[in-house]
Amino acid sequence: MTARYAIYYAPPEGSALWRKASAWLGRDAATGEDVARPVIAGLDGLDMDALTADPRHYGFHATLKAPFELAAGKTESELLAAAAEVAAGLTPFEAAIAPAALGRFLAFRLQDGEAEMSALHAASVRGFEPFRAPLGDADLTRRRKANLTPEQDERLVTWGYPYIFEDFRFHMTLTGAIRDEQVRGQVLTALQDHFSPESGPHRFDGVAVFRQTDRQAPFDVLQRFPFRAAVAA
After folding, report:
1. Measured in whole angstroms, how far is the alpha carbon of residue 113 from the centre of its chain?
2. 3-state helix/strand/coil string of 100-156
3. pTM (2 decimals)?
4. How many other CB atoms sit within 10 Å of the CB of residue 210?
5. Which CATH number fits domain 4-232: 1.20.970.10, 3.90.1140.10, 1.10.3720.10, 3.40.50.300?
6. pLDDT tens digit string along 62-81?
7. Is the pLDDT assigned to residue 224 strictly greater than 50?
8. What whole-number distance in Å separates Cα of residue 156 and Cα of residue 198?
9. Count of Cβ atoms closer than 10 Å to residue 95 Cβ
10. Confidence at 232, pLDDT banded by 50, 70, 90
């Protein structure tokens, strides 16, 4: 089986947001261990394992560069060295975040700071591209089931993911798709209340390399790299 890697934003391990979001998902991607999920008012009767199955698989994160296999001749240690180099050239910034809807999904989304986040996203897409193996036919076919625009299909082939650059939407996913609008609103209200202490200004000060040992395995944090000014501080 071939490992896959991803460049994600993830809060520092041990931070209040990381601990609380990992508990919500029921799994800590930094330790690889299941964690006890809190009892949250207003969610009685919902299947929490099913509600959080998809984001639990990937770990609490926001995608900066989507999962990829390593290009021929590239190694994991080289990828980590590149991540340290990229992070050393970036500067921390603050932006407000809060639970919100993204279509049928619920996630932490930006309330401001779009320009800074878009710059971080673009730097990650471009900076790690030399490490990405071209997508195989199975992955191309799977992605194209989403009825991509011609521009998105071109990005899929060129960069390995269709929803980048002007189609990028920062989100730290908290649920899978919730088709019932009433249930979706119920869960969103509960999440906004539960995460109210963690909503508002958030310091973005690092990127993380996640690894998936095979396509069935969950993603785990391999290493997190602080930005230049974060190290200096």
Report:
1. 17
2. EEECCEEEEEECCCHHHHHHHHHHHHHHCHHHECCCCHHHHHHHHCCCCCHHHHHHH
3. 0.94
4. 24
5. 3.90.1140.10
6. 999 999 999 999 999 999 99
7. yes
8. 34
9. 18
10. very low
